[in-house]
Design brief:
single chain; mainly alpha; two-stranded antiparallel ribbon; about 400 residues
């Protein structure tokens, strides 16, 4: 009987110890969140609720969150959250959070609230992490943070949704935790003591069953750890798949850019060919025009030479008569013809020099551009224009003996 009484006392002590913590849990208290941390958490809540990604929370988006996420735990309406504002932006959402009573909750208030929400598996983590009201916004937005607080996946999800509920709408009247709950707990403990007395005969069977349940609990914990390992592995695999997809995208982009460069190179090659053809046409036209000018100069010089030759022939015919010799004695015709023929000779020399320079220039261009300007080389054409004809530009005759006699 004394052992049964001690067992009942232990149950009462255990029940009374739940709000303050769980024995054997190490403390991993974190520093108090800063204002920037809270702004970041509120921003994550906005992103979570903002379905159309316009940076605002509309009435429709709030109604969807109430219906599809928060469920029927507490009846809310859209006006409780928007307070007459059709759209809420980040700054308005943060101002609402600063006036939310939940933000000022101490650690014991969070523990009492978690007990009321039947989140007993999360109590050790809430206690060891020194979770206060400001941290509820973090619990509502961070999978990694809440994973360190609550080990059971189902309770972890409920804790996150209930935290989101508190951040959005604040505490409900039922969250005040009246004293009657303590009385009910004490009555429950008393009933448990009575049940312990009644079930004394089945104590051994219960202990055996408790041992089996403990083993099952250990197996469940092992399965949960394996499940967490599987989730981590799945996350890593997903990350690697995303990296591979990114690499493939970069590769495809590089291939497209390479194709574009090849097309541009082909276009430049065609432009180069067209430019080369155009240059060849221009050079050929210039060559033809230059040849025509050179031939024209040659023709004009030839005509001038023929005229001068005719004058020389006239002078020779006049020298054959005594009268003509007398006329030529005081005439400047002979010196004029001599000067004209000298000018023609200089013109032939100049044409030859120009033709020689032209030949060198066009040969250099043909070598530089690697194509022929014309089917006939410039040197061959220049040869026909660079030298005068074999006919002597001036026909000189000895003075007749008759002229000497008269002299």
């Amino acid at each position: 009987m004394s052992g049964l009484v001690l067992l009942a006392v232990a149950a009462i002590v255990a029940a009374a110890a739940i709000p303050g913590g769980v024995v054997g849990i190490s403390s991993h208290a974190h520093s108090a969140p800063s204002m920037n941390d809270e702004k970041e958490w509120i921003k994550r809540i906005l992103v979570h609720l903002d379905d159309d990604h316009d940076g605002k929370i509309s009435l429709t988006e709030t109604e969807d969150a109430i219906s599809n996420e928060l469920g029927s735990h507490v009846k809310h309406n859209v006006d409780d959250f928007h307070k007459g504002d059709a759209e809420l932006v980040e700054d308005e959402l943060f101002e609402n959070w600063k006036t939310n009573p939940v933000r000022n909750w101490a650690g014991k208030d969070v523990l009492e609230w978690a007990k009321k929400m039947n989140l007993s598996s999360c109590l050790p983590g809430l206690l060891s992490g020194s979770i206060v009201g400001k941290d509820l916004a973090h619990l509502a937005t961070s999978e990694h943070f809440i994973k360190n607080v609550c080990p059971i996946v189902a309770d972890r999800k409920r804790l996150q949704l209930r935290s989101l509920d508190l951040v959005m709408f604040g505490p409900s009247p039922a969250d005040s935790f009246p004293m009657i709950m303590s009385v009910i707990a004490a009555v429950a403990v008393g009933i448990a003591v009575v049940v312990l007395f009644i079930s004394h005969k089945k104590n051994k069977e219960l202990m055996t069953e408790l041992g089996r349940v403990s083993m099952d609990q250990g197996a469940i914990s092992d399965l949960e750890r394996k499940l967490e390992d599987y989730e981590v592995a799945l996350t890593e695999t997903t990350s690697k798949a995303q990296e591979l997809e990114t690499q493939n995208s970069i590769k495809d982009q590089a291939v497209n850019e390479l194709d574009d460069l090849r097309e541009e190179l082909e276009f430049l090659k065609k432009q180069q060919v067209n430019a080369r053809l155009r240059l060849k046409e221009i050079l050929r036209a210039a060559y033809v025009q230059e040849t025509e000018l050179l031939n024209l100069a040659k023709s004009l010089t030839q005509d001038r030479k023929l005229k001068a030759q005719k004058e020389v022939d006239k002078l020779d015919s006049q020298r054959r008569s005594i009268l003509g010799v007398v006329r030529l004695t005081n005439s400047v015709k002979a010196s004029e013809c001599e000067g004209e023929m000298h000018t023609v000779l200089e013109m032939y020399r100049l044409i030859g020099t120009i033709a020689h320079e032209r030949t060198d220039r066009w040969q250099h261009l043909q070598k530089l551009l690697d194509f022929r300007v014309s089917s006939r080389s410039p040197s061959a054409k220049a040869a026909s224009t660079s030298q005068p004809t074999s006919t002597s530009p001036i026909t000189r005759r000895k003075p007749s003996r008759r002229k000497k006699v008269m002299a």
